[in-house]
Specification:
It comes from Musa troglodytarum (fe'i banana). By secondary structure, the protein is mostly helical. It has 31 helices and four strands. The radius of gyration is 31 Å and the shape is globular.
Length: about 625
Amino acid sequence: MEMGSPLESLFHGLPKYLESVCLIMICFLGTLSCRFTIEAVLYSPFPRSRFSIIGSGRPLRQRGKDTSITIGEERNENIFLDKRGKWRVSNPKKLSRKRGGSLRGRGWKYGSGFVDGVFPVLSPMAQQILKFVQRESDAAKIWASLDTLPPTHNLWDDLINTSVQLRLNKQWDPIVSVCEWILYKSSFHPDVLCYNLLIDAYGQKLQHKKAESVYLQLLEAQCIPTEDTYALLLRAYCTCGLLEKCEAVLTEMRKNGTPPGAVVYNAYMDGLLKGRNTVKAVEIFQRMKSDRCRPSTDTYTMMINLYGKANQSATALKVFDEMKTEKCKPNICTYTALINAFARDGLCEKAEEIFEELQEAGHEPDVYAYNALMEAYSRAGFPFGSYEIFTLMQHMGCEPDRASYNIMVDAFGRAGLHEESEAVFEELKQQGMTPTMKSHMLLLSAYSKAGNIPKCELIMNQMHKSGLKPDTFALNSMLNAYGRVGRFEKMEEVLTAMENSRLEGDISTYNILINIYGRAGFLSRVEELFQSLTSRGLKADVVTWTSKMSAYARKKQYKKCLEIFEEMIDAGCYPDGGTAKVLLASCTADEQIEQVTTVIRSIHKEARNVFDI
């Protein structure tokens, strides 16, 4: 060895094996020094900038990304020391194309777009197959083309990878074509992954009988079903409302000695929630815990979403606290679901607390988290607070999506700032995004509340020119706009157009009509509309009852209001704060006020003991 460098002079005279050990130690110390450098950057003594939010005294912390740290961490994760003592670099995205790294024989995680956590890496042949099956809709032509390919191991990998990619794209018909060819036409012996993909595709297409047939073929082929198989079959039944068959799946699992796990219960609850059977979903969650099955992060996230959508943010927070008590680590989706729960109730300060907790847990807020926080300030009536979050997310390098702009359009519209709402709408188009039906509806709602009829009609015309057909929400906004300015004939024209078209009015449609006619004093029309709900298959909600009651409260008809209130309770509809205000407005004597106060208090005490979502 020549004495060419200080490092070589240091090792001069040492045995070869000691030189190797010293080199490894120096590399290890170098890695530690990089880590210490990173820690020094993370814990810099310089203060970070803070952004205060209008409407709340709690500041939001800035958590930016350091690209140098990210690159360094990625390098450290991809560099490893092999058994021979040599440093090597791995590329996880290429593992699935190496020997033993294909998707053949692997398990399949239900509910995620991944197969065993590995992205499907498509070979050139797989990419051609993918493009062909996406373009071709005739299953016979797809089968004929696949018949021409030689049945090799590589083809099997390509077909499975293609099917998984199709599942990521939610393209169920091509999955059926490819997997059915494997089952019925090819010489391949399908594994459980192929059956699972086909069961999932049929379940998504609401074809539960075909999904059940594939499951029976799996058993006939002596292929052992996995927990994912049962989960997908159960969700197929659940989506079609066949709860008895769902219970039969759980019973069969127990008979086979495989008690349902978190994956199966999550699939059951997910199917129930998609079918809007929330009461049964809560029941399954409680049964899951009583069966000593540990709920997963996805389980708790679904329950937080459930309570959030039911405007029960306090219960959602209890589930979140239970999750942490059970040592189940929340992910960014869990935090976002809880922020959304507080957003729906307009509790912006609580939403901000959870947003900060999300950051403290080491998560980088994504566009969904920022959107949830923006929604919280919008619902609370702080549009400029939402706009500050909107500006902050861009400053932090998180690009707003179409939903972000829609939230800002709605935030300004709720506050009556229709000009600012339209400015955001125009900015959405300037960013190269196409406004959706919801974008137009939110802007229409903003001008509807302002009673600006010409602008509302202009937006409707723009929707027609864009090829968007107005839905019930858009027509409801027009009903509200015409009603606010007393143009009842135009309002009736819109209602007639809805009845003559395929669009059916929802309960919000009749709530608007009852409220407007009640304000104008047309009691007979109010009664006529209310009585027509049953024949239209609609059920009066708290807004409907309160609007009807308000019509009589304006006439100071206290006894009639009390009768309507009693009918409301008998119908199983519980009053809210607006109902109490209307009842009190109908009172003309102190005795009546005292009576109403007593009744409202007793009803709320009973309602606390009733679990209704």
